[in-house]
TrEMBL record:
It comes from Pararobbsia alpina. One of its GO terms (molecular function) is chloride peroxidase activity. This is Non-heme chloroperoxidase. Keywords: Oxidoreductase, Peroxidase. Its EC number is 1.11.1.10. Residues 28-261 form the AB hydrolase-1 domain. Pfam families: Abhydrolase_1. InterPro entries: AB_hydrolase, AB_hydrolase_1, AB_hydrolase_fold.
Length: 281
């Protein structure tokens, strides 16, 4: 196994530089962030699991964070191929891939296309994730309406800074009665979003909303934990997490009454303990 380097870049086949963190030793855990964030969104998990003897890897998706602000290749197949290149460079085996939101879609596509039958993947976790399909369609009549997705597109393209501030409120459930609004969390979300490239983030809205994962979920043959907040205002639980687990060969569902989309941050202690139990099982 290649020794970790702290943080570095790989260069993919099309010349895109992908930034990644690689800390600690032990069984590798690979963290995949959501739109429009970066590897920094996993800070609470990286520190926790490194402290429990795991090697933790988190990358910035192309167009996001410190990776190249790409104009092309902003699609789910390429995201998964980028992960495959990173896994190959780091020679990761028996890894657990953990994805939040759009990152859950990336995990699903990567494991289905690149992580079966080669010893690379031991388990996977989908947290507040977009599969099997985010947007409303004939195939997904209870999905998120296209008008809502168009609002995300418009906000990203035309007033990204303010829109990124505003979306943190439902993202973390800060609009619920009795919620304590944590400005540091909101500012960190905004910071991460504004680090990325607007074109890649705009393209990613189509990716996260229209990509179908029905076939991918059915292919995956490793144990998968689906974790989802029942008060998720971004990826509604009944149409995403609750449906995904039914399509998996070895899926387990753990749902959380009242928890928001951003629960890995707002409820990190609870999520980390449950993740650890699944990884060790």
């Amino acid at each position: 196994m290649k020794a970790n380097t702290g943080s570095s870049y790989i260069t993919t086949a099309d010349g895109t530089q992908i930034f990644y963190k690689d800390w600690g030793t032990g069984q590798p855990l690979v963290f995949h962030h959501g739109w429009p964030l970066s590897a920094d969104d996993w800070d609470a998990q990286l520190m926790f699991f490194m402290g429990h003897g795991y090697r933790v890897i988190a990358h910035d998706r192309r167009g996001h964070g410190r990776s190249t602000q790409t104009v092309s290749g902003n699609d789910m197949d390429t995201y998964a191929a980028d992960v495959a290149e990173l896994v190959k460079v780091l020679d990761l085996k028996n890894a657990v891939h953990i994805g939040h939101s759009t990152g859950g879609g990336e995990v699903t596509r990567y494991v289905a296309r690149h992580g079966t039958g080669n010893g690379r993947v031991a388990k996977a976790v989908l947290i507040s994730a977009i599969p099997p399909l985010f947007m409303k369609s004939e195939k997904n009549p209870e999905g998120v309406p296209k008008e809502v997705v168009d609002d995300i597109r418009n906000g990203t393209a035309n007033h990204r800074s303010q829109f990124y501030k505003d979306i943190t409120i439902p993202f973390y459930g800060f609009n619920r009665p009795g919620a304590t609004v944590l400005e540091g969390i909101r500012e960190n979300w905004w910071r991460q979003g504004m680090m990325g490239g607007i074109k890649a983030q705009f393209d990613c809205v189509k990716v996260l909303s229209e990509t179908e994962f029905y076939d991918d979920l059915a292919i995956i043959d490793v144990p998968v934990l689906v974790m989802h907040g029942e008060d998720d205002q971004i990826c509604p639980f009944p149409t995403t997490g609750a449906k995904s687990v039914k399509l998996l060969k070895h899926g387990t569902l753990k749902s959380y009454p009242g928890l928001p989309h951003g629960m890995p941050t707002t409820h990190a202690e609870q999520i980390n303990v449950d993740l650890l139990a699944f990884i060790k099982a």
